[in-house]
Specification:
By secondary structure, the chain is mostly beta strands. Helices cover about 0% and strands about 40% of the residues. The strands form four sheets. It has a three-stranded antiparallel sheet with strand order 1-2-5, with no helix packed on it. The mean pLDDT is about 90.
Length: about 90
């Protein structure tokens, strides 16, 4: 939702609940330089996704396809997430 990768979509690869951060594929990529391990081998520049704060991402609703906030609805037997835009179960 904010920053250099605003508007990108991707799959959540990893979650860090204590830090309130997540890693999303193809978002917040950082270049990492690797030295050659053996003689005659070339060094490499590898792009790896770095963690983003959870406040900078939104869930995409499968029905309406829009970035949405998440609400919760509880019934007698279960609790589930709902889309705040179209009010359907996620």
């Amino acid at each position: 939702m904010a920053g250099k990768d605003k508007g990108k979509k991707g799959k959540v690869l990893r979650v860090f609940p204590l830090l309130a951060k997540i890693v999303v594929e193809n978002a917040n990529l950082a270049k990492k330089h690797h030295r050659p391990k053996r003689q005659g081998e070339k060094g490499q520049v590898i792009e790896t996704p770095r963690p983003l704060h959870v406040s900078n991402v939104k869930l995409i609703c499968p029905k309406c396809g829009a970035p949405t906030r998440v609400g919760y609805k509880a019934t007698a037997e279960s609790k589930f997430r709902i889309c705040k835009e179209c009010k359907t179960e996620i």
